[in-house]
Specification:
metalloendopeptidase activity, Rossmann fold, transmembrane, 5 domains, nucleotide-binding, alpha/beta, 658 residues, five-stranded mixed beta sheet, Signal recognition particle alu RNA binding heterodimer, srp9/1, Pept_M41_FtsH_extracell
């Protein structure tokens, strides 16, 4: 309910323009109907309607005094002065003779309905209505586009006036440095003399750069809520149209609107849609997008000064932007909006948890430690998933268990317990995941295990989730070698337990992950002793914006050496995983049997199992016992079914935090 004492509250506006237009055209339509009805009734004769046969009988009996004969209607007067009318029968040639024999006065009359104005009006009424509707639609299109020919050349920028749901800097958490940079712009707008007296000039533009979901658009909304000046918002794709020249016209119109409302802020979201590097178009590269970009460059810093207009743009692809757009004088500041660290994640969780009733056992710090690599949007989704889980379980408060289950769902995918797996498929998956886990435990540089499961999740039949103990900003060579070994652990476990002839396709994603990692180590990160610290591959934006990877030093011998080094890294990881699992085969059987019994184990439970040989779950019934298969034996035939047909992905690379 609105506050009647609010001095800033605007009086209610008049009726909606659409409603007014509909009322006008409705009135015109009713007036036309009234005219038609008036003209239609003007020429209608009055009198009693009788049948033609009754008319002939009345003539024969001498009751008719006079008649008027028409092609469409016969009207007349009876002896008692009553009037009548009847429809004649065509080709009745005896009617005149019958009237003469009975002494009835008769005469002819003009054809009914020959009023020219009425005829034209009735015939043209549908066309008038169609033209009226088309004119009304055209007017609305012009108003929606800001006028002009169909509004194509007018800006689609909208002035943001958030009277409800206003966002301020208090709602932005976890990205303090970026917030401080933009807060300075707001302070400049509120008190420009404070900065200008020392010769400082207001920045012309600020570019927000960061991964998807880090809060770039939220920061812009907070600026709109804090600045107290007009705030225009538009998307980069709104400039681009199929007609050449329209985008440039919209840029001009947007800056004209901004000049009228200066000082103001213009926010362009996803500016990479219009600001990509020039030279990738068709023909002579003089396409619509490049004309739009040229106009934007001129308006931001050309011969005409745009004082008091601050451009804020957001993108997650700064590498594709044109260099002319990024120079000082256009975008003076590039504000990096990073993935939040553990303190930032805790603050972001605190902001989103204010909207959720929490149980006393919920600890945001613990959740923040278990979600490395999560962006602000990921954390908001995590809180929402936890609230939905609590509602599904008919709980009044969201407890820590819901947050843990929601985290597993977000990081590993939803459980597919309805999926039917045979005993042999489940056993193969258990040894595959146990292989990953055992190698991870014995690789010192590997991240600790968070959870291991053989319940199908997402596209995988099973998964071993590892999480780093702290936020990592770079990876060392020993950790990459450990990741390669862990990725090979699943395939090696299948080879040791079931033999080379019985390995499954479940290691496909592991092999893909290991190959990509080894290729990057050799070609991009200079981690090959034979090839040295050189970059052999680079990613470039190709024709029409399509990305492509090419080798920069692509000699025949070099290519052979690159492929040999990649193969050597993967095969070396396979050998290390084989050594670890062969040496710790008893632990492999112990962990695989535990996973078959309990399906999901936490990292602490795996550690306890390997140290003590047992897991303490007194309240949970144990599953069926499985015997250790002899080395190289075939997978036993399945009898009982647990749950559908397996997917190819039994393992898969463990997510490294996000």
């Amino acid at each position: 309910m609105a506050d009647q004492n609010d001095p800033n509250q605007q009086p209610p506006e008049g009726p909606n323009p659409w409603v007014k237009q509909l009322m006008i055209w409705g009135g015109i339509f009713l007036a036309l109907l009234l005219v038609v009805s008036l003209f239609g009734n003007a020429g209608q004769p009055s009198g009693t309607q009788i049948r033609y046969s009754e008319f002939r009988e009345a003539v024969i009996e001498g009751e008719v005094q006079e008649v008027q004969l028409g092609e469409d209607m016969i009207t007349g007067t009876l002896r008692n002065n009553e009037t009548f009318q009847t429809v004649p029968v065509p080709n009745d040639a005896e009617i005149t003779r019958l009237l003469e024999e009975n002494g009835v006065e008769f005469s002819g009359k003009p054809r009914e309905g020959q009023n020219v104005l009425l005829f034209l009006l009735i015939q043209s009424l549908p066309f008038i209505l169609i033209l009226g509707i088309a004119f009304f639609a055209l007017r609305q299109m012009q108003k929606g586009g800001g006028g002009g020919a169909m509004g194509f050349g007018k800006s689609k920028a909208k002035m943001l006036t958030e009277r409800s749901g206003r966002v301020t800097f208090e709602d932005v958490a976890g990205i303090d440095e970026a917030r401080e940079e933009l807060q300075e712009i707001v302070e400049f707008l509120k008190d420009p003399q404070r900065f200008s007296k020392l010769g400082g000039q207001i920045p012309k533009g600020a570019l927000l750069v960061g991964s998807p979901g880090t809060g770039k658009t939220l920061l812009a909304r907070a600026i709109a809520g804090e600045a107290g000046v007009p705030f225009f918002t538009i998307s980069g794709s709104d400039f681009v149209e199929m007609f050449v020249g329209v985008g440039a016209s919209r840029v001009r119109d947007m800056f004209e609107q901004a000049k009228k409302n200066a000082p103001c802020i213009v926010f362009i979201d996803e500016i990479d849609a219009v600001g990509r590097s020039r030279g990738h178009g068709l023909g002579n590269s003089n396409d619509e997008r490049e004309q739009t970009l040229n106009q934007l460059l001129v308006e931001m810093d050309g011969f005409e000064a745009n004082e008091g207009i601050i451009i804020i743009a957001a993108t997650n692809r700064p590498d594709v932007l044109d260099p002319a757009l990024l120079r000082p004088g256009r975008f003076d500041r590039q504000v990096v909006v990073p993935i939040p660290d553990i303190d930032g994640r805790e603050k972001i969780l605190g902001v989103h948890m204010k909207k959720v009733p929490l149980a006393p056992d919920v600890n945001p710090r613990t959740i923040a430690r278990g979600t490395p690599g999560f962006s602000g949007a990921d954390l908001a989704n995590l809180v929402n998933e936890a609230a939905l889980l609590a509602a599904r379980r008919n709980k009044r408060l969201v407890a820590m268990q819901e947050f843990e289950d929601a985290k597993d769902k977000v990081m590993m995918g939803a459980e597919r317990r309805s999926m039917v797996m045979t005993d042999d498929e489940k056993k193969m998956t258990a040894y595959h995941e146990a292989g990953h886990a055992i190698v991870s435990v014995h690789e010192e540089a590997s991240d600790p295990i968070h959870k291991a499961t053989i319940i199908p999740r997402g596209r995988a039949l099973g998964m071993v989730m590892r999480l780093p103990e702290r936020d990592s900003y770079s990876y060392h060579r020993d950790k990459m070698h450990a990741n390669l070994s862990v990725a090979m652990g699943g395939r090696v476990a299948e080879e040791i337990i079931f033999g080379h002839d019985k390995v499954s396709s479940g290691a496909s994603s592991d092999i893909q992950y290991a190959t990509d990692l080894a290729r990057n180590m050799v070609t991009k990160w200079g981690m090959s002793d034979k090839l040295g610290p050189l970059q052999y591959e680079s990613s470039q934006e190709g024709y029409l914006g399509m990305g492509q990877t090419q080798r920069t030093m692509a000699g025949a011998e070099t290519n052979k050496l690159i492929d040999a080094e990649i193969k050597s890294l993967v095969e070396g990881a396979h050998k290390r995983a084989t050594d670890i699992l062969t040496k710790n085969e008893e632990q492999l059987h112990l962990l695989a049997q535990a996973m078959l019994e309990y399906e999901t184990l936490t990292g602490d439970e795996i550690k306890t199992l390997l140290e003590t040989g047992k897991i303490d779950r007194p309240n949970e019934p144990r599953g069926p016992a499985y015997t250790r298969p002899p080395h190289g034996s075939a997978i036993p035939k399945a009898g009982k079914r647990f749950g559908g047909k397996g997917a190819e992905d039994a393992g898969g690379p463990e997510p490294q935090g996000a």
